[in-house]
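Run folding on both entries below.
>entry_1
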Amino acid sequence: MGKSFLFARSASAALAAALWAGSAAAQGSAPQAVQLPVLDLSEALREVAVQTGRSIIAPDELVRGRHAPALSGTYTAEQAVAILLEGSGLAFRLVDGALVISAPGDARRPASDAAEQAGITVTGTRIRGTAPVGSAVILIDRSAIERSGYVTTQDILQTLPQNFGGAPNEGTTAISLDPNTGKNTGTGSSLNLRGLGNASTLVLLNGDRPPLGGFAGVFSDLSLIPASAIERIEVIADGTSAIYGSDAVAGVVNVIPRLRFEGAETSVRLGTADGDSEELLASQIVGRGWDGGHAVVAYEFYRRSALAAAKRDHVTDDLRRFGGPDLRGGYASPGTILAGGQTFAIPEGQDGTGLSPAELVAGAVNRGDGWAMVDVLPMQRRQSVFAAVTQVLGAALRVYAQGLFSVRDFERRARTISDAPRTVPVTNPFYVDPLGTGQPVRVQYDFGADLGRERRVGTVRGYGLTAGLQADLGRWSVDVRSNVGHQSERSSILNRVNSARLALALLDPDPGRAYNLFGDGPSTNPATIDFVRGSTTSSNRGTVWSATVRADGPLVTVPGGEVRIAVGGEFRQEHYRDGPTVSDTVSLEPRVLPPIDLPGARRIRAAYAEVLIPLFGGGFTLPGLRRLDLSAAVRTERYSDFGTATNPRFGLNWEPFAGVRLRASYGTSFRAPGFDNLRQDPGTRLLFAFTIPDPASPTGRSNILVERGNDPRLRPETATTWSVGADLEPRILPGLRAEVTYFNIAYRDRITSPAANLFNFLVNRPTYAGIIEDNPSPETIASFYSSPFFVNPLGIAPDTIAAVIDARLQNLSVVRQSGLDADLRYAFRAFGGQAEVGASGTYIFNIDQALTPTAPVRDVVDILGNPVDLRIRGRALWSRGPWAASLFVNYLDSYTNLTNVTPQRVGSWTTLDAQLSYRLPERNGLLSGLRVALGATNLLDSDPPYAAYNLGLVITGYDPDNASPLGRVVSLQVTKAW
């Protein structure tokens, strides 16, 4: 078997429409206006699928190098395909509503093989050959991937309007309001549909759960999936726990590999972010079919160099150039002396020898930008191998296996996490006494010039293996499969200060060995600098194992068609473990710290059933009831640590007449707490003092005490989701298609930490009243200050504390969200070729959130740290013969920043992506199948809108949740099909 193309509609929300017609073989297709020039046969078949809405499956080895005649008229899909195949020696047959192209000799192929190609299982349902009833499927196919201008899976999915970037991603690591970004130990990338949290979006690889990444498996790491091995990505932005179980509250993303690729394809891409960061991608895929079997192997290498913060003006602590405040910290080189409650700035331009107290600047502080010599995006280097094989055994049995292995290395210069005042004793030969007291002094000093910036380096390895056996028992199919996945992460922070060895070096009276904190760095003997250089190294790993048995097929025949059913059972085990940490920062010799004690293995047993009932359709119709389908599904799961959860789902598709389909869905979903959520060891606790905005304070700010950690009373999250939508294809205007969906989500007991809104606690006091204790007693304050878990980075005095806030991870009482998804497209002939214009977007009406049962409901949409109400991706596509061009417009609406006392409006942001490509015709000898694409993302190099993104210890001038600092990326990609 060779590579088979599933020709459907364009990449935005189209698969459901293409399979809509295919869901009932008896339905047939109504005549459509079809206009085609002379094209390659593969392109002509694709255009017929687009213009008629029918699924067409064409093995690549049959259509490669063939040409098709022009078409102009009104045809059914069958009529159009028959004309295109005239004289080719090829034929087609109808299988489950799809038109399958075949050669005369293909009659010898097992029937199960053709059924496998046509009986496609679409994300959102377990019943083959149908689309999920009641929900729209967002499709990103191979053509859309190639035209997007992006080459990594995470970047491709970040373009979805339904996605919110506030989640673990390489650009948000430790600089986001989302609490999980700090657990992104391997600088991976996740997806966050609807902004309900990355843990509420289920990611699948060809229907299987991959192992999770980050500490304790807090997210699915998309960065390990090579985009060159992807056939298509299907997204359901709707609750699907009745189909897939936990984590599918906001939706599911299924990445489907190129299992049917035939031949060979080599691709090389070079890209540059205006010379500030470069990327290289090289990939090779090889596939071969034989009688009853097929194998494919794909390899991809990807490397992108780091992006320095100095290359982007908006990545800085000093926001004065934007009209904002100077938020640089008090650590610099030269540093600042602290003595007698006063500050004394050390002058520049001297090496700390012979410095006198008279040269110090009393009452001043030398300030340093924490982004100096730091990377805002890390270097990423990845190698991935994907392989799949299938073999038919007899007429009704098929065995299959597939596997993915990826290894990714990363490196970035990071903001310093070890800043602290250093005590200089009087024995230090460079000691300066600004007050003449003869007492030790403290110095705030930036060691970056001495040691180099702290560097985070590490490696992530992941693999997934699936093997299964599929048997066709008449028209029923039974599938037994097992999957195992493993992901491990190891990372180090280099160039840290070893405080124990630094104390010795500061105490040393020998000028040749002592550490000098009183000059421009470096002013110390290099051997001494190396002596105080420290590091930490940590690791974690996770394993997922599952076994599944499922069956689907027709049950009975009713007037509207066949009632189809799917049933199955699953067992899954998840286990996440932390490794020992090697710390070389607080003792003279490295210390090995024991692993964090995570909960043991979690075991899940599940059973499900799904039924599709065609009430009207085919030859059984009534006025206003051209087609009516109902579906129902239920899934029961028993967790070894959280008991049993049962979730139903119902769907309806109603086609009153040709060109109009109405749909609705209703279901419940749930998500069990993650492994890190369940920890109760001392390492989860953090008590700290901080200063935050307070409009009720005369100074506009107040000092508070904050408790963070895990609430031991955590419960699973639950949700009720429903949606209604319409798909319109007016016959009076062929080529026009519109989809619109209203969604409503009622999310209860959502697990999150209110600490993400640290700077809003007192600005929006009524919202957080349930966790705020005003005017705490001296005993309460004393218990914080005496706790071994207490830190006081700003040196706040106990008698200035105004409130205590419980910001532990807990179940929020309610989150209610509603909005609209829409996709509009119009395909037409233009400039001698085929053109399409359209746009997809999401508009969120509200995200009503209440922290506690007694707290007022607050709408947080359009507030920094939460999704923006409107996001649109427009497109204009054109192709003619070997030429193709695309233009995308990305729009993000304006929103409000409340992390300061005075609210700030963050402006809207519009960027353009463009690509021009040329594919050499098949008859060009060695150059046959060569495609050259020149592209640019953020074509006009539009900077992110200014946002004073203030997390206290981390500041930027832009919002990393909603914008990328990368800027314009120009790329050249050459792809050769062999």
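>entry_2
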Amino acid sequence: MPAVTAELRVLGAVEAYVDGEPVDLGSLRQRCVLAVLAIEANRVVSVDQLVDRVLGHQSPGDARSSLYSYLTRLRQALAGADDVAITRRPGGYLLTVDPAAVDLHLFHDLVARARVAGDARAGELLQQALALWRGDAFAAMDTPWLTNVRTALELQRWTAELDHVDRRLRQGDQARMVPELASRAEQYPLDERVAGQYLLALYRSGRGADALFHYQQTREVLADKLGAEPGAALKQLHQRILTNDPALAPAAVEERVALVPRQLPAPSPMFVGRASELAALTKALDEATSDGTTVLITAVGGVAGIGKTALALHWAHEHADRFPDGQFFVNLGGFDPSGEPVSPVTAVRGFLDALGVDPRSVPADVGAQAGLWRSLIAGRQMLIMLDNAADSSQLTPLLPGTPTCTVLITSRRRLTGLAVGGAQLVDLGVLAEMDARHLLAAHLGTERLAAEPDAVAELVRWCAGLPLALGIVAARAAGHPDFPLSALAEELHDAATRLDALDAGELSVNLRAVFDSSYRNLDGDTATLFGLLGIAPGPDLGLPAIASLLARSAARTRALLRQLEAASLVAQPTAGRYRMHDLVRLYAAEQAHSDISEADRAAAVRRLVDCYLHTAMVGDRLLEPHRKLDGVAPPVPGCLPEELADAAAALAWFDAEHPGLRAVQQLAADHGWHAPTWQLAWALHVFHWRRGYQGENVACWQTGLDAAQRLGDPAALTLTHRCLGRTHALVGRHAEALDHLRQALALAEQSGDTTTQAHVHLALAWACAGQDHPDQALTHAGEALALFESLGDPVWVAEALNEVAYRQSTLGHHDEARIACERALALARAQNHRDGEAAVLDSLGYVCRQAGEGAEAVDYFRQALEKCQEIDDAYHEADALDHLGDAQAALGQRDAARNSWSRAVERYRAQHRTADAERIEVRLADL
């Protein structure tokens, strides 16, 4: 039996036919559901999207149950057809249907084919496309979303009608068209394209005087209604009519189009920047021209809205003279939010039509058509611009075989398949801040920007260098010239409404819709990973963290990331690290909240937290093996902590992950995971110390203390008070330090925790010294030493001895201090405690300098400096250079002191230790 086919119509009242017979589609809202699914044919539509698009903002409480009822009845109504189905998918619902069976998609296909066809064939295609319309699209349906789609479709219909007129005029049909165009010109007196068509029809019908009279009428109407002169195109046509330009004859136009195709659309008048990318394209052309043996194929890639087409067209027009035999252009629609991709067959046929090939001589076989296309352009200097390509397979039949032709491609996908064959890839990044400002100024004028510099800075910041976002913002601002830019900036400031603000009312200028067209091409696992990356904190992520987020193996995760990178949805700025554009991240987070359950999102985030925590704990032990923390729970299932080989690898990992680590700690706190929150503060402590991130350390421990207080664990509370107190002492906040340390000491004494008491006394020595209480500092250092000795912990005995020695020396007890330092140094070396060894060497330098032994002080400070450099301890390296310069200056070694202090200033500045840097700069000035 032959298949029973269906036909869906939305370009008028919403209707369906099965085997040629009309189907009862039920209520208006039920037909509205079918309309939405038909518009999104063969693409999954989430339940939330269906509810919003069908019911708008007046969604009742039982909207979902109503929706399910509509879908069930629609399935029943269409059950008799073999080629249409409504199915439930993980992300929502899918209408599977042949696009040619939906009048909307058939319209798009016919128009796309017409735009790459010659005039004769294009006229037929446009006539078929326009005949599909039976009235207003989705008649009687007025939800906000459908109203927006209807507006966009009406504009496409109007454009197609005008294109059809142009082609009829080129074919010499002007005599029959004059009455039709007269009526249209009267109906749309401000449409300059309509006016131009009417002028041309009148002129070609031998009514040149009437054409000139209508031009004057149009000019007066424009001046009266808009206060504007006619545009350049209409003025040029008027001038050519005045001079009886022979090129206006229909045959001349037809011949010129056939022989030398000039299909490039106009370049954007708002194009800015991109100097390096334009230079790269020109360099590639120059090198290919000099080589003369291979076809130059250059593919411009990048995220949606980054300006690929604008760049390519700008360059193509700048170099049009290098392609005297013509320029072809086709929008392949690979990621068009309102239609299906153009097939290679359609594109090739359009090129053949543009070359004037008689339709009757075009072979039926697709491969033969591509061969004919290549034969006709062989040896000709032509540019072939293939815009918005879906993938390499769509492009292969369109590529020429002659080195005289140049191919310029744009695509959101990274076309590695072409690159393997020798094509050059140009990755387009975001606009620089100054270029972003220039783009806004091109739209809005410099005066309006100068009036609100703060608002402009906010707009530039939140658009994050994405030209489409900047263009949408500018269009919205231009539409309300009296509104302050600060109002728009306020909309963008809130992440929850930022994507809503980046919508200028049509699909092509709705950032969310543009991103949708990329997201819909992802398969299940890849789409899930995309969403999870949107809710992951930090500017970028390494592969192990992403694998933990997804609970997949590293190999599987890497494969999925390759798909996202190929789709320009993530970037890999350095090997193994991945990041998203800020606006893509917002969109991804929306998809995560729409398509991934709250429980699955929370589980993914917890795996990420544990990956960071357990990797950081390993890294901390590698940096300082003598620190330990008991009671850390094992990682949750699916978490894959990173393996670190040694201290150098640990430090490199902390450097790369530090912004993400702080963000993950806050994320853990927000989720109420209190133990990982304070444990992350512990794991980051040594790294923060070595890198001089003391302000970060204070904030990190404060977050840890807050978590410990909520947790109600006395041991955690004692530890966080102690560590926060010590960190406050290190940055000179001695009053805060004493407050936290006294609380820690009281808690430790209550619980009988001798080890913590010893650590607190050691930290109290620092805090008391900072408040200029040297005797109290020595007393606390002595208490710490006695307790550590009773515990038999040689590493911390060495630390306490060093502290005792330093405090003795400040009180003038240099001999006792030297003896304590030598004991501490022996213990530190015996335990391979390199941090402690560096600290004791620095103390010995101080003791010798205080005792008047300048040369010995210089020697010890040099040894301390070398040890700090050996363990990559930037914080204490700066201090060692500072102290070394002091000792050298005391000996009169001015050049050596200047060198040491200059290096110290560099490191202090890098660590934001401004007071220390300024103190040394005064000494350098004195030298």
